[in-house]
Amino acid sequence: MKGQVVYFSHGGGPMPLLREPSHEAMIAFMKKLPKKLARPEAILVFSAHWEEDIVHIQSSKKPGLFYDYYGFPKETYEIEYPCSTNPVLSEQIASLLTKAGIKNTLDEKRAYDHGVFIPLLMMYEDADIPVIQISLLKNLSPEEHYNIGVALRPLMEENILVIGSGFSFHNMRAFQFDQDFSEDLDNEKFQNKLEQVCCTLSGEKRREELIHWKDFPAARYCHPREEHLLPLHICAGFSDKEAIKIFDAPILGKRALGFQISI
């Protein structure tokens, strides 16, 4: 059984669990996605909501939840997702990164953030699969994030699901919370370019394009800060093959994409 890699847009905070109307397409996608995947023995998540100076890898047995959102109903701060990690796998991840010259550390204190437990509650609500969250780097280097995926490619020989949990559009000022959606040509241009790069290019060509993503049309409009895009770079590093688009729908009035990285 070979590993599987997906990148998707995880929506706004706990809004999917509140059945927020602009998340309907995303909710349906998340609930159906496990049926399209082989059931994994472990899940690795690179969430846009955890950055460190060097790569941090969850290593405590029961990390708990970190409610890293504000102003939502009380029940969203009482959500539970009582899954465990896999300390042996955490050590294996650390070893692979070290072998590739990527500085890292095991982290026994970090809890799961909403980029992890919100999508997983829709995908695997029983919380019976070990989950390890791994941080991004504060330097936001696209090349270094791509190299993290490359370093962890040996894990694809195991039955592991890798999730890049981000958002292919993430300009908070441009989201349309009032549901009065209108055409956004800059969003379209960026998403079209991202889809073309991920789904029609492979190997070194795709790597170079992703490393220079700031040259994409409307790049800084769609990502004033790139932490929600970089989980895609990590996912792309796991394979040189073309990706498959698995999600293309509006979230909060903006077109958002998801990809499965072919192995």
Please characterize this protein's 3D structure:
- The structure is a single chain.
- The protein is of the alpha/beta class and 263 residues long.
- It has one domain (4-261): Protocatechuate 4,5-dioxygenase, Chain B, CATH 3.40.830.
- Helix content is 32%, strand content 21%.
- It is built from eight helices and eight strands.
- The chain has helices at 24-36, 87-99, 114-123, 142-151, 185-200, 203-211, 219-222, 230-237, and strands at 4-9, 42-52, 55-58, 104-107, 131-137, 160-166, 243-251, 254-261.
- α1 packs across α3 and α4 (142-151) runs parallel beside α8.
Compact summary:
The chain has helices at 24-36, 87-99, 114-123, 142-151, 185-200, 203-211, 219-222, 230-237, and strands spanning 4-9, 42-52, 55-58, 104-107, 131-137, 160-166, 243-251, 254-261. The protein has 263 residues and is α/β, with parallel strands linked by helices. The protein has a six-stranded mixed beta sheet with strand order 5-2-6-1-8-7, with helices on both faces. Strands 3-4 form a two-stranded parallel ribbon.
Uncertain stretches: none
Largest sheet: 6 strands, mixed
Distance linking N and C termini = 11 Å
User: Per DSSP, what share of the residues sits in E-state strands of 2 or more residues?
Assistant: 15-25%
How much is the radius of gyration in Å? 17 Å
Give the CATH class.
Answer: Alpha Beta
**What name goes with the CATH superfamily?**
LigB-like
Task: Estimate the helix proportion, in percent.
Answer: 25-40%
Oligomeric state:
single chain
Enumerate the strands of the largest sheet in spatial order, edge to edge or round the barrel. Answer: 5-2-6-1-8-7
